[in-house]
Amino acid sequence: MSEPLLLTDIGQLVxxxxxxxxxxxxxxxxxxxxxxxxxxxxAGIGHDDSAVKAALAAxxxxxxxxxxxxxxxxxxxxxxxxxxGDRVAEFKARMSGAPYLAxxxxxxxxxxxxxxxxxxxxxxxxxxxxxxxxxxxxVEIKSGYGLTVxxxxxxxxxxxxxxxxxxxxxxxxVPGEHANDPERYVEExxxxxxEACAPYARFIDVFLEAGAFDARQxxxxxxxxxxxxxxxxxxxxxxxPGEGAKIALEVGAASLSHGNHLTTSDIQLLRGSGVVVTALxxxxxxxxxxxxxxxxxxxxxxxxxxxxxxxxxxxxxSSLSFMIALAVREMKMSPADAVWSATAGGAAAxxxxxxxxxxxxxxxxxxxxxAPDYAYVAYRPGVDVVRRxxxxxxxxxxxxxxxx
Length: 404
Ligand code: NIG
Known about the structure:
Elements: E1 5-13, E2 30-38, E3 41-45, H1 50-57, E4 61-64, E5 69-72, E6 74-76, H2 88-95, H3 105-114, H4 117-133, E7 136-139, E8 141-142, H5 149-160, E9 166-171, H6 182-197, E10 203-208, H7 215-227, E11 231-236, H8 244-251, E12 255-258, H9 264-270, E13 276-279, H10 281-287, H11 295-299, E14 304-306, H12 320-330, H13 335-342, H14 344-349, E15 366-369, H15 376-379, E16 386-391, E17 394-398
Parallel strand pairs: 1-4, 1-5, 6-7, 8-9, 9-10, 10-11, 11-12, 12-13, 13-14
Antiparallel strand pairs: 1-2, 2-3, 5-15, 15-16, 16-17
Helix pairs in contact: 4-5, 5-6, 6-7, 8-9, 12-13
Bound molecules: N-(iminomethyl)-L-glutamic acid.
Residues 80, 104-105, 108, 207, 235, 238, 283, 309, 311, 313-314 line the site of N-(iminomethyl)-L-glutamic acid.
């Protein structure tokens, strides 16, 4: 464990400890302050804090933040980064008007099955490094491109080498070899596949959508996961309306991802339920789909998280800064709400209480922006404004930059 470190000259400390959906108040900002890191955790905040004063008196190491922003690292609560091949041809076709179809997942399944475990690990590891460099200190990874007992387990083993936030998504698509008997495949997912994969996963997920799994199958999969101690989560209402909100409530899901076609009555159902809606603007960008309008969700008091959904088919970007910029421009989110959703919101979607906010006792997963204001993340779209990244208190990324 590294020595205590005092981060000084913080121009804007964005703690994300306020109420979600409350605009800038949700960020609970303070200015001209300092943060003490000790044993991987935040140990004190502010010049008047007794731990900070004691550390200064003891001659603690200091690092100036050059009057820039310090904020929590991004918590990316939805990704599929263990895969083989790419789907750039599908992207090009979509940009010429072709629709996004769930069945495209099958192309990545074939390429993933063909890839060696080493190749999968190398590719996923490189994407994880890319995510960390762009400020994502926590990343969730789903399986779902194997769709056999052996291949789903292999994907989760690779994922577990990268993160402890792993999700079993055997019910991503009915694979070609089971096309004539989808029920048999659901049986396999809920039986031997779940048995083999549950030890490597924290969550269970299902793609509830036309062309993937129906409501009855989704219920069955999520209930089976619950019986194995996994936390349910869903992909739902992405391409059309459905029973996702209802099922999320029934099984006590942590989150529902996509939600583009949630209806007014779905939103009423979700109100007060604790289910987080995970908005995935990179998907709407990359599939040329209609963006989710988050205002009715905020109005209903529903917690919204923002994630990359990094995958080769529907969203091949790992950048939460890009997602924030898109959400601000296209999903009617304020810059403050978008930053909250990509940090504290992501932690809520993963049911993690030790990160996503800057407060005493939380993990020291932090990012320093090359900027005087948090809104630069959206104000400078396409520009990397993340200057330093701290993970468990250790500085793991530092980019050489001139300080303006
Ligand atoms: O979240 N919607 C389902 N799963 C992924 C898509 C993966 C793919 O197209 O390969 C998603 O968008």
